[in-house]
Write a structure and sequence with these properties.
About 5% of the residues lie in helices and about 30% in strands. The chain is mainly beta and about 675 residues long.
Length: about 675
């Protein structure tokens, strides 16, 4: 199941609409303050969605109130657009996932596809304005063949209407950073080499092939800089491609700074936390998720991942500072301002996959700038944005030791103790579930042979139950924050994985023995430079059903005022899974999900993300499902919303699926209330 899941304008006249007419012509579409006709209406930028998380801060909350709890049931398809990629022959041979979150600026929508088609549409009608094809080589088998969208940069020094005054910035999966004119899609030739910067050039550890290093997330834009991370293939070798974060000049493409999460300077305080002759050669620890930015404070907030390799750290002993961390860099220089590590010496693939959300909390009448970070471990950390100091208590708690020769697991790990976990932290034999009594007994026998001491039980040669699994807890879908109710909405997964370290001498024979078994969710990785091969699988009952009980996925809302979970609802259903040989009862609620939520001032949370291919709206305060619409494939993306030129609020989801149980499509679908 895991392998299926993870496989799975022109320069013509601009439309001009007066601010007052957009905001107030239709009373039902009014935004805050408009009804009184005062200056408290949001500025036009508040009606657009100009960054992956709506703004560079990444809170994913829209002030629009045209679609509300009392009328959301009337949402209908307003327009649909197909990129054509689902019909390409290469798509059938490739695990391609269309996960873009479109951007809208001044009536034009921009997005990108896995194969590198960058598109501009009229945001109100869905009419195509231009397409620029970056011609990504479809024969390359990228490990995570996706692209989650583009970024926009406005050149404040450019003459209005001049070429490339507004630029679409694209980090293509084949590691090209490209700048296009937002008006016609032509390359901005003064940027890099004829509009392109090669992101492979200059890496400390160069990738050994084109599939080891890629770009999947849109860059961060902060003032006149483009800040770019990377995605690095897991578990191939200890000295995998390095995960430098870099800042490029948005006008010229010139490299301004580089920050390496594996310290290379012996005067860096983090240097001594990487121990061993090979430690400073370690690769990865990269930032593959979306980077948040606070332009006013000259900060970028970087979510880093696990160092290579994920499941054995004997060649990189120590805390491994800056890996598995939230790191605030001075945007203008790339120097560290503060850091907070969410996992010490990661052995579980607990990347910081969720983008940070930069929000403002109010305490005793004071505005407090904060960072919200949800983690695969099922924790929610709340940090001060200027210092990284936890605003809600974090404790270092003892965790189990490793019994693997040569490994030195961290003796403690950080826990967010003022907030409840987002997902279960341990499964026992009493929790085992299955569709039949025989399946339950088989699961209990399997569980009895594993190391199972709760979260942070280290990998072992006999097999370790890892809870949460490598797909979360919270995952790359991230969080949305409703500032009125101080609610953090987070999608989570609740299945467990089994990690077994196979001595290299035995690995090949075991792999050959099990290869004919067609075991769903089973994978191996060589982990070169270590004594072990990784075996990773989902803990299944007979028929491909997780032994952990449903819901297998949930949508959770955490109240930061009460510090409690306000609601948790199963997300998705088992609809359609039977055709993949998964014996999950049809009435089971709560499935694996991959994709993010947004919230609105209309009191709504929108999310797709599920395998059953529905797009849903929930009441943000209560968790009640208020609306849903059938999609052509799973919406494994984060939706967005904006105000159209016709005064209507639109909600858009990329329904691209991702093959396997998520299905396959290439559609962008916009919903609105009837005219």
């Amino acid at each position: 199941m895991t392998s299926l899941l993870l496989a799975a304008v022109s320069r013509s006249r601009r439309v001009r609409v007066s601010r007052r007419r957009i905001a107030c012509t239709v009373a039902a579409l009014a935004v805050s303050g408009c009804v009184r006709g005062t200056a408290s209406s949001p500025p036009p930028a508040s009606w657009d969605w100009t960054a992956y998380g709506r703004t560079p801060l990444g809170d994913r909350h829209s002030p629009l109130t045209g679609i509300r709890r009392d009328n959301v049931a009337g949402l209908q398809v307003a327009w649909r657009y197909s990129t054509g990629e689902a019909r390409r022959p290469e798509t059938e041979r490739t695990q391609v996932s269309f996960e873009a979150t479109p951007l809208v600026h001044r009536g034009v929508m921009y997005f990108s596809t896995p194969f590198g088609r960058v598109t501009a549409l009229d945001a109100t009608t869905g009419t195509e304005r231009w397409v620029h094809d970056l011609k990504v080589d479809p024969s390359i088998r990228f490990g995570d063949f996706t692209n989650r969208g583009v970024s926009l940069w406005q050149d404040a020094s450019a003459r209005p209407g001049s070429p490339c005054a507004l630029r679409v910035i694209v980090a293509a999966i084949d590691s090209r950073l490209v700048a296009l004119d937002a008006v016609d899609g032509r390359p901005c030739t003064a940027f890099g080499a004829e509009g392109t910067v090669d992101l492979v050039r200059g890496l400390r550890n160069a990738p050994r092939n084109r599939t080891e290093y890629e770009q999947t997330s849109p860059p961060a834009i902060v003032n006149d800089l483009i800040v770019v991370g990377s995605a690095v293939a897991d578990n191939g070798r200890i000295d995998a491609a390095s995960g430098e974060v870099r800042g490029f000049d948005a006008r010229t493409g010139a490299l301004r700074w580089t920050w390496d999460p594996v310290p290379q300077d012996s005067t860096d305080p983090g240097w001594a936390t990487w121990i061993g002759p090979n430690a400073h050669r370690t690769g990865a620890a990269n930032a593959w998720s979306v980077i948040a930015a606070d332009p006013a404070r000259d900060l970028v907030v970087i979510p880093t991942s696990s160092p290579s390799v994920d499941y054995y750290g004997g060649e990189r002993k120590g805390e491994n500072r800056y890996a598995n961390s939230i790191v605030a860099l001075r945007a203008s220089t790339g120097r560290i301002v503060w850091h907070f590590q969410t996992v010490h010496h990661d052995l579980w693939d607990y990347d910081n996959a969720a983008p940070p959300a930069l929000v403002t909390l109010y305490r005793d009448g004071r505005a407090v700038p904060a960072v919200l970070q949800a983690t695969k471990t099922g924790q929610l950390f709340v940090l001060h944005r200027e210092t990284g100091v936890p605003l809600l208590r974090v404790e270092e708690r003892p965790v189990p030791r490793s019994d693997v020769p040569g490994e030195e697991a961290s003796l403690t790990q950080p826990f967010s103790v003022d907030l409840p976990p987002l997902s279960p932290q341990r499964w026992t034999a009493d929790d085992v579930w299955g569709p039949t009594p025989e399946a339950v007994q088989a699961c209990r026998r399997r569980l009895a042979g594993l190391r199972n001491e709760g979260t942070f039980t280290p990998p072992s040669e006999r097999g370790t139950l890892v809870v949460p699994s490598n797909v979360g807890g919270a995952h790359w879908g991230g969080v949305s924050y409703d500032p009125v109710h101080e609610l953090v909405v987070v999608p989570t997964n609740r299945i467990a994985a089994v990690i077994t370290l196979l001595p290299q001498a035995q690995a090949d024979s075991i792999r050959r023995q099990e290869a004919s078994g067609e075991r769903i969710g089973l994978e191996y990785a060589t982990m070169r430079g270590t004594p072990y091969t990784l075996k990773r699988e989902t803990l299944f009952a007979e028929g491909g059903v997780p032994c952990t009980p449903p819901p297998f996925g949930s949508l959770v809302a955490v109240n930061l005022r009460t510090r409690q979970i306000q609601w948790s609802v199963p997300l998705g259903t088992a609809e359609g899974l039977q055709r993949f040989g998964l014996a999950i009862p049809a009435d089971t609620r709560g499935m694996i999900n991959l994709g993010g939520p947004i919230t609105t001032a209309g009191g709504l949370t929108f999310i797709a993300a599920t395998t059953d291919a529905w797009f849903r709206a929930f009441d943000t305060v209560t968790g009640e499902e208020l609306w849903k619409a059938r999609l052509p494939a799973g919406g494994k993306a984060t939706p967005m919303t904006y105000l159209g030129a016709d005064g209507r609020q639109y909600v858009v989801i990329t329904a691209g699926g991702g093959s396997g149980i998520f299905g396959r499509s290439d559609e962008v679908i916009a919903y609105a209330l009837p005219r």
